[in-house]
């Protein structure tokens, strides 16, 4: 079994877990509840293909968040990634983006 594991290490790309997950923080525009979204960039991205290529030219992800308080307004995130899975564009509907420090200072 050790041989197969070593063989797998040779052919699989090395990625760290810090590259795998992207955390985003938002605040609902209706009630002000602060929400956290986690995007798994290895598994949750949808590839966008050019017309003449079999390789993805970019990736897309859509997340819909609903809080746990009394307000059930959806907050929709639209995320665009480049071909190496780095975030290049983000949109939001029903809320606004906040930073991690503001999220952690829950009021």
Would you summarize the structure shown here?
This protein is of the alpha+beta class. It contains 3 helices and 7 strands.
- Output the helix-strand order: HHEEEEEEEH
Rg over CA atoms: 18 Å
Mean pLDDT: 88
Which regions have little confidence, pLDDT < 50, spanning 5+ residues? none
Please estimate the helix content: 10-25%
Count of DSSP H/I helices = 3
Written description of the protein model:
With 107 residues, the protein is of the alpha+beta class. It has helices at residues 2-11, 17-20, 100-104; strands at residues 21-28, 34-40, 46-49, 56-65, 75-81, 87-93, 95-98. The protein has a four-stranded antiparallel β-sheet, with no helix packed on it. The chain is globular, with a radius of gyration of 18 Å. The protein starts with a helix and ends with a helix. The model has no long low-confidence stretch (mean pLDDT 88).
């Amino acid at each position: 079994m050790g041989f197969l594991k070593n063989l797998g290490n040779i052919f699989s790309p090395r990625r760290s877990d810090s590259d795998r997950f992207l955390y985003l923080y938002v605040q609902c525009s209706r009630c002000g509840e602060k929400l956290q979204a986690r995007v798994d960039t290895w598994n949750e991205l949808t590839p966008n293909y050019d017309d003449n290529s079999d390789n993805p030219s970019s990736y897309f992800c859509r997340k819909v968040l609903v809080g746990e308080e009394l307000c059930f307004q959806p907050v929709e995130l639209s995320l665009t990634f480049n071909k190496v899975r780095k975030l290049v564009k983000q949109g939001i509907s029903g809320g606004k983006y906040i930073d991690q420090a503001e999220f952690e200072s829950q009021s």
